[in-house]
């Protein structure tokens, strides 16, 4: 990465863990940290496979996310929902 004076470092690092049971039901946990913003994000999600073929998949996910930072004095768990369609060629 180039060194540019007076530009802050927005690098983010984190980790996550996923578990999938019989390619149908799954769960994931994750955490990310951005030092410059003094912010940590955490999430917990559940996943349900709705449709699967050898070349495509449709999943529904639901869970919650939360951010911790001295600049966000009162953060709470926020709901999160997603649909994910994946197609292989």
Structural descriptors:
Attacin C-terminal domain-containing protein, mainly beta, 5-stranded antiparallel sheet, single chain, innate immunity, 89 residues, extended, Attacin_C, secreted, antibiotic
Descriptive overview:
The chain is mostly beta strands and 89 residues long. It has one domain (12-87). It has strands spanning 12-21, 25-34, 39-52, 56-68, 78-87. Strands 1-2-3-4-5 form a five-stranded antiparallel beta sheet, with no helix packed on it. Strand 3 and strand 4 form a beta hairpin. The protein is extended, with a radius of gyration of 17 Å.
Uncertain runs:
none
Measured between the Cα atoms of the first and last residue, the distance is 33 Å
N-to-C series of helices and strands = EEEEE
Q: Based on helices, strands and strand pairing, what is the structural class? A: mainly beta
Global geometry:
extended
Describe the largest sheet.
Answer: 5 strands, antiparallel
Question: Into how many domains do the coordinates divide?
Answer: 1
Helix content: under 10%
Strands, helices and their partners?
Blueprint: E1 12-21, E2 25-34, E3 39-52, E4 56-68, E5 78-87
Antiparallel strand pairs: 1-2, 2-3, 3-4, 4-5
Question: Could you give a quick summary of the protein structure above?
Answer:
The chain has 89 residues and is an all-beta fold. Helix content is 0%, strand content 64%.
């Amino acid at each position: 990465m180039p060194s540019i004076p007076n530009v802050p470092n927005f690098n983010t690092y984190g980790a996550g863990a996923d578990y999938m049971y019989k390619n149908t039901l799954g769960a994931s946990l994750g955490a990310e940290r951005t030092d410059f913003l003094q912010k940590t994000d955490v999430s917990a999600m559940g996943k349900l496979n709705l449709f699967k073929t050898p070349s495509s998949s449709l999943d529904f996910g639901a869970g919650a996310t939360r951010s911790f930072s001295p600049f966000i004095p009162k953060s709470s768990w926020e709901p999160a929902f997603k649909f994910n369609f994946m197609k292989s060629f």
